[in-house]
Each structure stands twice: as structure tokens, then as C-alpha cells.
Amino acid sequence: MCGSAATLVATLALAVTPASVGAQASVTANNLDLPDNLTMLTNPDPNVRRATAVVNGHVITGTDLDQRVALLVEANNTELAAEELRRVREQVLRNLIDETLQIQAAEAEDIMISQAEIDQTYARLAAQNNRRIEDMQTYLFSIGSSPISLKRQIHGELAWQRLLRQKVAFFVNVSAEEVNELMQRLEASKGTEEYRLGEIYLSATPENAAAVEANALKIVEQLRQGGSFVAYARQFSEASTAAVGGDLGWIRLPQLKNAQLEAVAQEMQPGQLVGPIEIPGGFSILYLIEKRQVLTADPRDAILSLKQIQISFDQNATQAANEARLQEFLAGVQSMRGCGSANQIADSIGASVVDNDQLRARALPEQLQQIVLGLGIGETTPPFGDLQDGVRVLMLCGRDDPEVQSGPNFDQLMQQIEDERINRAAQRYLRDLRNDAYIEYN
């Protein structure tokens, strides 16, 4: 047991021992008619936090749990009901226990994560959230968490990844024949769809399957109410992709190596969430981020040069006056001969023009994507808008089509197969760590 943990446990033990408290009372407080033997119902020292669990001697306190839960609650963007919050706390405690086991296993192999590495990752997370380091600290305190809590999670993720590279990845072998066979199948599947999926995997045994499934259903419910898939994957998923928010990257469905998951994913649309799906060893929750055709350029990746031509209306004008203005606008747009005349004619009818020369087609609203991609240079979309916000058209002035994707190369496919095998081995490794652990709960 480390020094700080031992001190905390000893302090807790002394604080609630009836005999020691009673002896002190008999000497100093008999004039208050207090009993010689009393039992304290609460911790008399508010600065000492009661341990929630002790994992191989490492104390996980209520503060640790509260601050980690706060990260998830904030990412959820909705207030959790009392029952849901209780379930989340139980799951986060299990995650903290796993995290502790992972750090301890890494340290047992002389794998130490330096504070500089942790701080660097913390700074990168702050930058990704458009915050300075000092602002990140203020933000974390404001939601009931702390930099210490987030850095502990970073420590756990880095330690586990490094341990897997040393103890698992080193023994995973992928032959060139396997990779070449996969490349041939990939080429044969040209034009079929490729999926970018997010996953949350929860392991289960026959004994606890019902409870794990109920937990997965609660997670799905929270996600459908606006919870962050990335945050829930980082906190709850037991797959190695948890560290990247559950993102599997671009895959073909056979790479899931599960007929049921393949069938479900094939019917999904981007943005759709499905689960829990029972699979061997547990349950999966899938989220389809995007899909595209294998080895085929996606037109939505085209870079467009557009002019937005817009008029506004006088809210105090009569309906007839605004209708006349609209007709003048439509006639002016129709008279335009490509982008070269657009600005001059727009000025003559009192319209404004906004240019965008580097807009990816997929960034447009979905209902406009196919319309714009069907335009020739100098053509405009049908007018859209209303009296309140104005009416506008988009004119296509240029289009750079994407190059055909060459697909993953030999090294990338080999890495993908290795990652899959490492993930399966990591799940077994963590189960072994749990089985061998000494864990005390309060």
C-alpha cells in the first residue's frame, strides 16, 4: 500500500473506532452526561474522504468518483434522473477500478508514464476544446471535476496502451498471406459500401448478462436523449477503442467478424444508433458516423466555389411590394450569364453576394447537397428562404472533384488486423487482472 493510501485508511479506521472515542469522552465530557461508549454515525473530520473502494491497496475515494462522474454528466448535456445517476456512478466506479488495475499492471512491468507525457496530452485536450490550460482548469472546477481527475484518466489510458504494446502486441503475428488475401477481397468489393462506426462494448457472462443488458439499455436511452457517444464510449466501453471515443475508423462489414453486427450495420443510416446487440462475450452498441463506397470517390468530398446571392425584405412593406421585389430578384438571377456577371446584376437589383471558394459539398445542408452537385458551372439552385430571413440562391462557380480513394495499403491493413487481435487479447488480459485483484468496497 502506498504511503498516502495507508495514511488515509488508518485515519478512517481510527475515526470510527468506538473504544478510542469513548475513552476520550469519559475523561473530558462526563459533566455533559455523555455515555462512556458511543458510536460515531458520520466521519468527524470533513477533510478525510471515505474510500469507495480499495484496489490492491490503492484507495478510490468518493471525491475521485464524484469528479469522474461530473465529466460524464457534463458531456451528457441533460440532467440525469436520480436512478440514472446512481447507475452511472456504479459504472464509473467499475471503470475507475479497471483503470487502477491497468495502471498497477503497467507499473508491475516497470512501465512508468511521466508527468510530462500526461501534461502534454492534457494540454492537447484543452486545445481541442478551444481552451487555454488555465481556462481548462477553471472549466473543470466549474462542473464539479478537476484537472487531477482528468489527468488520472489520461494516465490510465497511456499506461494501458503502452502495456498492451509490450505484453500483447509483441506476440501478435499477422502473415503477409492474410494481408494479401484481405487486399484482394477489398479490390473485389470495389463500389460496395464502407462504414465508419462507433462502438461501445460491454462484456458479459451468462450469470450477469441480464444486468449488463439492462445497463446497456440505459446507456442507449441516455445517448438518444442527447448524451455524447464519445464520452460514454470513453467511460463505459471495454473495447480498446474506448480511448478514441469508440471510433472504429473506416471498415467493411466483414471486418466486424460477426454476422449479426454485419446485418445490423448494413441497414443503418448515418447518425443512427442501434443496440444493445448481444454478441459472443457481451453486448455492443453501434453508432454509424458515416458511410461511403469502397475505392470510389465520394462526390460529397468535392471542393466547391460558390456565390450566395441574397435579398432581404422590408418587414413594414406591403405584401405586394415584397412580392414585386422577389420577382425582380428572380428575373435578375435568371438574366445572369455565369459567375462573371453575377456581382454586377446583383448590385443592380439590390442583392448581396457572398463568395466561398473552399466549401466541401458535404458541409452543405443535406437537402442542398445533391442539388448543388447536379449544377453546371454558372447555374444556380432554385430560390430558397422566406420573408423573415430573406431569399437566396447558390451559384456554382467551380468544382474540384475528389480523387478516387486508393484504399488502405498493405501496412494499414496489417495494422488493422493486429489491432483487432490486440483488442481481443486486451479484453482477456483485463478479465485476468480483475480475477486476481484484491478489491474492498465500502
UniProtKB/TrEMBL annotation:
Keyword hit for Protein transport: no
Tell me if Isomerase is a UniProt keyword of this record.
yes
Q: Which domain of life is it from?
A: Bacteria
Q: Name one GO molecular function term.
A: peptidyl-prolyl cis-trans isomerase activity
- Pfam families given for it? Rotamase, SurA_N
What keywords were assigned to this record? Chaperone, Coiled coil, Isomerase, Periplasm, Rotamase, Signal
Annotated signal peptide: 1-25
- Name the UniProt record assigns to this protein: Parvulin-like PPIase
- Organism of origin is Qipengyuania aquimaris
